Amino acid sequence: MAESRYMTINMGPQHPATHGVLRLLLELDGEIIVKAEPHIGYLHRGIEKLAESMTYPQALTLTDRLDYTSALSNNLAYCLAVEKLLDINIPKRAQYLRVLMAELQRIAAHLLWLATHALDLGAMTLLFYAFRERETIMEILELATGARLTPSFIRIGGLASDIPDTFLPRVKAFVEDFPKRMDDYETLLTENIIWKKRTTNIAPMSAEECIQYGVTGPVLRASGVSYDVRKAYPYSSYEDFDFEIPLGRNGDVYDRYLVRLIEMRQSNRIVKQAAEKLPGGPFAAVDAPLVVPPAKEEVGRDIAALIRHFKIMEEGFRPPCGEVYASVESSKGELGFYLISDGTNKPFRMRIRPPSFINLAALPKMIEGQMVADVVAAIGSIDIVLGEIDR
Amino acid sequence: MELYYYILEVVLKNLVVISILMLFVAYLTLAERKFLGYLQVRLGPNRVGTWGLLQPIADGIKSFVKEDIIPINADKPVYVIAPIISFVAALSMFAVIPFGDSVTLFGREIKLVIADVDIGILYIFAMGTLGEYGIVLGGWSSGNKYAILGSLRAAAQMISYEVALGLIVIGTIILSGSLRLTEIVEAQRDCWFIVYQPFAFLLYIVAALAELNRTPFDMPESESELASGFNIEYSSMKFALFMIAEYIHLVTVAALTTTLFLGGWLGPVLPGPVWFILKTCLIIFIFIWVRGTYPRMRYDHIMKFGWKFLFPAALANVVITAFIVALR
């Protein structure tokens, strides 16, 4: 075979800009990419298979470890699927708190994206600014859930516990402060001529291509397709909140950047509304005694409650036979859980629709014909998390 | 007897300048980290000594005791010699920079410059270009594809910016009528050249950033794309030599900016060298500030910018300056 005139380089799995353990095989003609081939699987833990040997409440903890930047959204998607299977009603307070937390988590995930994306393109100062605000969100979430990265706080039937009294004031303080911080970020990047040159018309995807590849989330919306699960198929009372879906026009890296920035502002609006309108009432379903464990004080007082608690923790519950699919709009795109129940206390099959995985499939299409420097811009703009891709 | 005194004077001057320069460079790394730290709402180094003052020393010791690795694929002699070329070229650049007027010590008049050669600027550009060989050869001899990409970028970028840089400087040469740096400074006794050549000053800062491989033009290294580019395989003291060379280069370019545009050592009240150091620090401060603010440009944009904007702009500056000087 004749010597190829192209240089093949191996980018990753240990590379500062591949966001985890993605490996890209690039064929280069000078600095132009002729062919790109993503290789995945370095973080494979077999989460889908593991779930088959766990009871429904136990499998919840696996979902934290999918997209570890937005664990609460994953919790929510899984819980929605199981609740659909069980057909139980969630009280309004729990629904609102779920929305509030999922949106805070979305802001945190987008901040992490903004920080690393800017760093990939050489603007390192923003990393620290964005991490500062993310830290505030982490502290707020920790206050309620007790964990920073893997809270498993949204449970089947509601929440793990009610929020502490100090939670809402801190959320409100953050919500007031955050738009000003966003303005700071934008002064650094949005109109910066170097930033615009690095991102405009880079890695473009047309609306048709996005739909063909099944791309969802901000990448799809940056191409001008108005599809957001929160609006298209509202779940967890999203229809009660007033927010807009930002759309891009060109579907390039710059539009994805703008779409995510506006999404953060919109999420901030949702958090504000949820905190203001938060109704009273129980934090978990009261009409599903076989699913929701009894309150702690009851367990210490009432033998029936103790037994109930023990049964739920040890054996879980047995949903009726059937198949369900439930999805949420996570920070990366449409995150779906497809569950098959055979009537036992463990899922027969759990299939996850990971948005990062499907968005990553469009990466070679985006970067072929572009330059090496654009690869990092493109990877940053689709915002992948390998925990979700490899599962 | 006179010859011995002369040799002694030169040796002493060299020793003093090199030790001050190395100390300055060592603490420049600390100052850069501290200043970037404050820009980025964090503290910077503060563990080694009060205010992190011993950090440069700790870094130095660390680079000495690290394992020195030479990759199997490397072209060994070139690989070893590349950082030395970079370092020596950067260090010798500083020889012609005047940091003060002459002083009288022990009955001898001593000029505060190591070598007051009459083609000072040409010498600096020659040495600057030589230093690039270090980077190009280092990347090429590492036997690593990322390093090759880095050194290819380095070669293209630095050579094209050298042209613009040379043209920008011609404006000040026309004004002063000399290539000797001391005379260029003396010509600014009435008015600094930044007043006559404000446009050239801005162009010079931009071209200097590119020449120095600093953000937004840090292509050869570009951490996030090439995983640190040309020096990816270097470790231990060889890596440190590249870093030191880079920072000496930074100081030299800042000192040259001071000499060409900000009146060198000239200034009221304070002694010459103090003014010189203050002005140099100001320029370095601007370089660090830019690093903390801007994203990295793309390689082809840099080339386009260099040839299609900087080069014609510098040329226009030369022509306009020449006309004005001729008409006067």
Explain what you see.
The complex is a heterodimer of chains A (391) and B (328). The longest helix of chain A has 29 residues, at 92-120. In chain A, helix 2 packs antiparallel against helix 3 (71-86), helix 3 runs antiparallel to helix 4 (92-120) and helix 4 (92-120) runs antiparallel to helix 11 (253-277). With 391 residues, chain A is mainly alpha-helical. Chain A has 17 helices and eight strands. The mean pLDDT of chain A is 86. Chain A has helices at residues 47-51, 56-64, 71-86, 92-120, 125-145, 167-189, 193-199, 207-213, 218-222, 229-232, 253-277, 296-301, 303-315, 355-360, 363-367, 372-382, 386-390, and strands at residues 7-11, 23-29, 32-39, 154-155, 158-159, 322-329, 334-341, 349-353. Chain B has 328 residues and is mostly helical. In chain B, a hairpin with a 2-residue loop joins strand 1 and strand 2. The relative contact order of chain B is 0.14. The longest helix of chain B is centred in the N-terminal third of the chain and has 38 residues, at 2-39. Chains A and B meet through helix 4, helix 5, helix 7 and helix 16 of A and helix 5, helix 9 and helix 12 of B.
